[in-house]
Each structure stands twice: as structure tokens, then as C-alpha cells.
Hints:
The chain is an alpha/beta fold. It has helices spanning 2-24, 52-59, 74-83, 87-90, 124-130, 183-197, 220-227, 238-260, 307-310, 336-343, 360-364, 435-451; strands spanning 27-33, 62-68, 108-109, 134-139, 158-161, 203-208, 267-273, 311-317, 325-327, 331-332, 376-380, 384-387, 390-393, 396-401, 404-409, 414-419, 458-459. The longest helix is centred in the N-terminal third of the chain and has 23 residues, at 2-24.
Amino acid sequence: MRIAFLALLCGLAFSSSASAADRAKPNIVFILADDLGWTDLGCQGSKYYETPHIDALAAKGLRFTNGYTCGPNCQPTRATLMSGQYGPRTGIYTVGSIDRFNWQSRPLRPVDNVVKLPLKVTTIAQAMKSAGYATGMFGKWHLGEDPQHHPSARGFDEAIASAGKHFDFATNPKTAYPKGTYLADFLTDKAVDFIDRHQKQPFFLYLPHFGVHSPFQAKDDIKKKFASKEGVGGHKDPTYAAMIASVDESVGRVMAKLNELKLAEDTLVIFSSDNGGVGGYVRDGLKKTGDVTDNAPLRSGKGSLYEGGTRVPFIFHWPGKIPVGISETPIIGLDLYPTFLALGSGTPPKDQPLDGVDLTGHLKSGGTEPLAREALYWHFPGYLGAGMGMWRTTPAGAIRKGDYKLLEFFEDNRVELYNLKDDPSQLKDISKAQPERAKELQTQLAAWRIQVNAPMPTKNTPTKKKK
């Protein structure tokens, strides 16, 4: 009897300790916009778009002015976020097949693209689930939606994938909703319900909106608000502004739910975008018209390895844990995987190198603790068209080290070098003025490609596209 009683006491003590440990783990909410540009927020400088909820998040959190994605478009960024790895490790570099654009007319054949996140990858959701988290995802997955690759099979306890349209949208799995529902509202409904039901345990919520990706569709009442507003600095489209406002409303609703449940101080909230905005092409001479936004002062936009394609808003909010401020330290989406693991006392996956760094110390220091990293890298061995026979990018790679960013173009091995501190618009190529620095960075970029086994495009005999 005494032994049984002691065993019961030990069991209760263990249970109490385990639940206390779980309560010590922060909830994590990661809200990802789609195609939202670096300046598409009020807190990032826009004088036309209105984002009061995201601005409030930034005003009470740590905002990074040099936040980056690993790819210049949707799919590689999402693969990186889920795997914690640079693109060459997963084989996901772009969206869809290499035949999406007419590479046959160019001197290089792109590297074949993987279109589903390989099943050997342990996702951040699987890692967080193993660490005791309830996991949910509602929105654009873009890494395979067959039963094996669907997010519900990749570590998410609950998952509804949807993208493609903002009204009359399809969901996987099929989910009923009232006619006329706007996708951003639907996804937010699911997100706040998930928070409500899992408030008693640590949760990891991934809310990847399809907004503000094309087709450009918005709610009429919000569009009317911007219809008579004068545009500023390339920000002038009422429909696009209304789409941004809907994403902002979503952030506000999530924060309201956390505050209602008194969970805000126990929750790290991150807001970012998957790549640069769909603009800057007219300034670059790639198009005559058609930019829906502008990433100025950054050069170019989505689909480019210039800053406008890869630099994005990055905001971290955690009252009492992360001081309010602004950090100029370069960070990248790769860093979220090891950071979430550290915060959730998770275990890194075996045989899966993580390429990012844990941001915990930097975040809690308010951006003063240095990161143990030399450089950031990009590898894009394919083509992205811009129309009119122009290209947002040809096969290229890039490295950022300190204030300097070098781009290497694989068709002719040409390089461009920029000092981003002095020239964030990348207007002055200083590769010829600083040949030694350019050579050093190009050599370091080549060494990194060997390290991650990055395949290179191969020679092609250009041919005209058959009509």
C-alpha cells in the first residue's frame, strides 16, 4: 500500500512538473502574407496603404529592416520555412516545372525543379508537435496537396489548404463556408477558433495568407475607402490596398483573441511576407505598365534577387520578452526553424542540417546581441519571365556579407557588387571599383554551393520557341 501511495505521489509530481514545463513554452503564431512588398505597410513607410494592426504590432515589438526570404518567389520560400534549409537541399527553387518559361531560347538549361516538399524532410510542424505543441495551419501550403504531402500529413494536427482565388475558393479538405466569404476572413476564422480550442496547451499556429497575391480581388466596402485616396510613391491601387487591409484586419483579430484569452504575454507573434511585392518592373525597364505596387527605394520586385525581390517586412512581438525597437541585423526565413525549436525545447531532426541560426538571444536583447553568421546566400538556377521577352531573373546566385551584396549571373559569369548601406537601391555597381572584394565574395559564394551541393544549370543551344 505504501509503495502504491508513493508511486501515486511520484506520478502526480511528474504530471505537475510536465504541465509546468509545457506552460513555460511560448505559443508561436506565424502570420505570412503572400507577395507583400517591403514598403507595403505603414510602419515600413507607405503613405497610401493603411495597416494599423500590423503597425501596432511593430510599435510594440522588434522590427527588422533587413529581413529576407530564401527565394524570390512563393514555393522556395515556403519550402525553406518548413525545412529550415536552403533550396539546394530540398531541390525546390521556383514554382512548377522549368517549362513554365521559354528557357529554350536562352544559353542555359535550368536545373529541374522539385514541386513537392520531399517526404524525408522533418518539417518544423513535426518538430514542434514532437515537442508537445498543438499544431495548426490554415492557408497557402504550396508544397504538395496529395494525401502524403498535405500539411495534415506533415506535422499539422489541423490543416486547411487554400489558394488561387479570394472569393469562391476551393479548400483541401473541402470545407463549407457562406457564399461571398472572403478567403482572408475564412482563414482568420479558422485561426482564432484554433487558438480558442488550444488555449490550455502550447500551440504553433501557421497562418499563411493567400493575400495579397493575384488575382487582385477585394471586398467592395474596403475598396471604396481607397477609391478617392491619392496615390503616393507607386502605391495607388485601391483593390490592392483593400487586400492589404484585409490581411491587416486578420492580424488585428488574431491579436484581439490572444488579448481576450490573456495569452499575449505567453505568445510570440511573427509577421512577414514570402517575397517582394509585384512591382519595380517598370522602373527596371522590364515592363511598360502593370505594376500593382512599388518596392522603392529597393530595386525590382518579386522574381528577382535584387533587394526588391527578397527583402521583406519581418516583425517579432512578444510582450515582456522582446524589447520594443528596430534591428538592422540581416535575418532570413531559415532562422525561424532553429528559433522555434529553441523556444519550444524541441529536438533538431537527425540527418537534416539546419542552415539558419537561433535568433532567441538577439530577439531578447532587443537586437543588440550579434548573430554567429558570416553571410546569407541565394541560389536560383532557373528563369522567371516578365513578359515582352524580358526576364525578372536569369539563372543567378547572390551573397550578402556585412553591408555588401554580390550577385552572380550564370549565363556569362558576370557579377555586380553593391554596398547596401550606402546604396539600398542598388544603382551603383562597385564590382570594378572593388575587384578584390568582388572576387572574395564570388569565391565564398562558389564554396557555399559546393558545401550545400547546389546543382548548376547546364549549357543549352538556344532555339526559337515553336508557335
